[in-house]
Amino acid sequence: MRDKDGEVRVLRNACRHQNMPVVGTAPGTCESFRCRFHGWTYDLQGKFLAAPPPVAPADPAPGANDLQSLPARVLNGLVFFAVDHVSTAILPPDPGQPYGGTIVTDIACNWKVCVEHLLGEHGVDEPGFAWFWPLVAMRRSGPAVLVEQVVPHTFLRTRLFSHVFGGTVEAQKEAAAAAKEACERLQLTRAAGTPAEGGALLTRFHQMLDEAYAGSS
Fold first, then answer.
1. Helical ranges in the chain per DSSP H
2. CATH assignment of 90-216?
3. Digit-coded pLDDT (tens) for 95-118
4. Which residue of 25, 110, 139, 173 has the fewest C-beta atoms within 10 A of its own C-beta?
C-alpha cells in the first residue's frame, strides 16, 4: 500500500491482537486499517492507534503493537518484499532499466529443482548474475535484465515469474519455455534418485537449505 506521503509500504496483514486480518479486500483506498474482530485500529504506516477498552493492549508502549513492517524495494513499478528478514540486502537492486513485462511459467517440478536450474550454470561471483536466498535470481539476457522469482505452488508445481527490464517479453518467451523443459527434465532425474550436481553456488544453496530445515525442526 501507499501511505499518505505516497511511500510504498508492505505490512503483514495480521492484527497484533489475535493475528486476524485487518484488510479484507486488496484494491481500494482507506484512511486507516481496522480489525473487524476486536476493533484494533492502525494508521497507513502500520502504527497502532486505538482499541476498545475491553481489548486494549496490555503493553501500551509506542511501537509495541504496530503492524509488522516488511523490508521492500520498488523496481520500476514492481514491489519486492521479504517475509522473514529485517534487511533489504536479500532483495534485488534496481536494474536501472524500464520494466518491460512479466512472463509467468507454470512448471511441473518442485521449487527446489527450479532454483537448482537457475543456479546450476552460474558461479558465486559471476558478473551479471546474482542470487538472493532463497527464491530470487537476477541475470542479464542480452541487453535485458531478468529478475526471476520462484513461487512454490504445490509440491510438484512451481511458478517462475520472469520480470523483464530493458527488453520485451516476446524476446524472452523462448528462454522461458526452455527453462520449463529443463526444470521438468531435472525433476525426473531427482525422482529417479539422482542427486544434485553443480558448482559452488549450487552447493551453497543446499547447505543453506539444510540449515533452514534443521532450524525449523
1. 111-120, 173-191, 200-216
2. 3.30.530
3. 888 999 999 999 999 999 999 999
4. 25
